[in-house]
Amino acid sequence: MPASLFDPYSNIAKFYDAITARFLAAPRRKTADLCRQFGAGRVLDAGCGTGKQCLELNLRGIDATGVDLSPAMLAVAGKLLSSRNVPLFQASCDNLPFKADEFDAVILSMVLHENANRADAILLEALRLAPLVFILEWKNPERNLDYLLQPAVHAVERLAGKSHYNSFKSFRRKGGAYGLCSGFAWAHEERFRGGSLILLALRRV
């Protein structure tokens, strides 16, 4: 059957970067820089989307691998990375086709809020593959300024469709990135975009 029947990104993959690349550029650069800072030479971008984060890693001499469930996203990533030595795989982030400790770090960028009902399983799978996991996610509002930005955040998530938005709301009810990661040890924390995004580095305990 056509991929569009199964792939929620089939209609927007070609335009995804035009919508999000500028917003996510700084966090992606910082994540790649932190991988070098922490000595992560082999890095898996789980939920790699259009491959932008893999490109940032590759430009820094890091051995990057990308995984995504969306065929449409992987098609875009394949074109972006065609001249780079970056292998790409199609798989679900809670059941990845790699051996334990095959990587030095795993990146989960804007993945958990899309899979709130499987977020715990995704985190555990990432920590099976590497002792260090970088998570870039929406942060639940805490300060007055945070609340000013929330209409824009909700508008973006609504555009992704009803199922996606319901997962986002469930993610928020679970405490967002802080709530999901509360049982893990953090090695780094940084905020972006007025505090609406948070980057966490989790260590296996």
How many E strands? 7
What is the helix content?
40-55%
Q: Are there runs of 5+ residues with pLDDT below 50, and where?
A: none
Order of helices and strands: HEHEHEEHEHHHEE
Please tally the helical runs, counting DSSP H or I stretches of 4 or more residues: 7
Overall geometric form: globular
Gyration radius from CA atoms, angstroms: 16 Å
Describe the strand arrangement of the main beta sheet, using strand numbers: 3-2-1-4-5-7-6
Q: Report the portion of residues in β strands.
A: 15-25%
Give the overall pLDDT as a whole number. 85
Key phrases:
globular; single chain; 205 residues; seven-stranded mixed β-sheet; alpha/beta
Helix/strand layout:
Blueprint: H1 13-37, E1 42-46, H2 52-59, E2 63-68, H3 71-80, E3 88-90, E4 105-109, H4 119-129, E5 132-138, H5 144-159, H6 162-173, H7 176-180, E6 185-192, E7 197-203
Parallel strand pairs: 1-2, 1-4, 2-3, 4-5
Antiparallel strand pairs: 5-7, 6-7
Description:
The chain is α/β, with parallel strands linked by helices and 205 residues long. The chain has 7 helices and 7 strands. It has helices at 13-37, 52-59, 71-80, 119-129, 144-159, 162-173, 176-180, and strands at 42-46, 63-68, 88-90, 105-109, 132-138, 185-192, 197-203. A 7-stranded mixed β-sheet has the order 3-2-1-4-5-7-6, sandwiched between helices. Helix 1 (13-37) runs parallel beside helix 2 (52-59) and helix 5 (144-159) packs antiparallel against helix 6 (162-173). The N and C termini lie far apart (43 Å). The model has no long low-confidence stretch (mean pLDDT 85).
